[in-house]
Amino acid sequence: MKVIRTADVSKEEQTWERPGGTYRRFSQYIAGGESTPFDAELVTLPPGATNWPYHAHSTMWEFYIVREGAGQVKSPEGTTDVAAGDCIMHPPGEPHNLTNTGQVDLVYFIIADNTPDKTTIHEG
Length: 124
Description:
Helices cover 0% and strands 54% of the residues. It is an all-beta fold. The strands form three sheets. A six-stranded antiparallel beta sheet has the order 1-2-3-10-5-8, with no helix packed on it.
């Protein structure tokens, strides 16, 4: 057994610009690597921030668990409001991103299967 205390895991700020906008998030990588069947990350999105450009993964599933705050998920079905307690599943090939539409941080976990091919396809 391994216990991971998120308070002890460093928080990395990630910001980048693409033609579609500016993206910003704070990530804590809490599990993962080549020897595990999944990756896990605790993400904080400041108010107004979007986590990534609209993108898909070629073979990887992602499961989001919203812990705090509110936001909107963009997918091929449109835009869906989410809040604390909601869970979102993105199968391989499904474009998606998440924007914090609230006044406080949006905090969520990402659990993804650890596939050999983690190709990300940016939709624009």
